[in-house]
Amino acid sequence: MAGFTLQVKVREKAGKNLDTMRKQGSIPAVLYGHSIKPQMFWVQYLHFSKLYDKAGENSIVEVTKDEGRAVNVIVNDVQIDPLSSRFSHIDFFQVRMDEKLEAHIPLEFVGESPAVREMGGILVKPIEEILVSCLPKDLPHSLIVDLTVLLEFGSHVQMKDVKIPAGVAVLIPLETTIVLVEAPRTEAEMAALDEKVEGDVTQVEGVVKEEETLAAGEGAAVDTEKKGGSKEEKKAPAGKEAKPPEGKK
User: Distance (Å, rounded) from C-alpha 157 to C-alpha 124?
Assistant: First the structure.
């Protein structure tokens, strides 16, 4: 377990001076966990940014508060400002070192596949992180996947082929494929794919034109009715109704 540490400052009131404090280089944060009351903090932006690059969201961080008491946490969530791309809020989750937790661990792909480098294959990664269960002290930062074993088209690596650290349980089927190499598409396949796309577009355009034609026809019918009704309606004398013949006495 990496020795990540972070100093935080207690935040007294929620929603107060947020913009000012952010401009001064602080990030609002909240700490919660089992059987504890949520607590609010300020975190120095520069310190957290450096820590997050190394620790991510699946490493134990020792957070020290103003009064000097340290707690073990993981970074449970971060919010990013869409305009500045800077951290705008942090959620910490306090962990118990004697209690197992579940976490998504990223896969770290290392090496280069000969099938990709020498044969022009396409590397496909259906999964890039794995759900695991373990004690906090056993939480891995990443799981290594060796790409050099992918020697030909169709080669693949399954979860059972990945080395799992002691004390860590993988919570997905071990037969799950996590990376594979596909053969590159031929020119004929690419041409067929282009034709299919063009055909789909043409069908959509045909449907749109048909709907526009129907709509135009309905509009013309409405205009005709507004101008004077149907031909049968025009034959009927205005103000008179046809009467049935009277019977003889």
Answer: 11
3-class DSSP assignment, residue 233: helix
Q: In this structure, what token pair is assigned to residue 147?
A: 């790409």
Chain position carrying tokens 């034109």: 209
Q: Distance (Å, rounded) from C-alpha 161 to C-alpha 177?
A: 10
Enumerate domains of the chain plus CATH numbers: 4-95 (2.40.240.10), 102-182 (2.170.120.20)
Residues 116-169 have pLDDT tens digits of 999 999 999 999 999 999 999 999 999 999 999 999 999 999 999 999 999 999
- pTM score over 0.85: no
Could you give the strand order of the β-sheet that contains 122-124, starting from the edge strand earlier in sequence?
122-124, 177-182, 156-158
SS3 79: strand
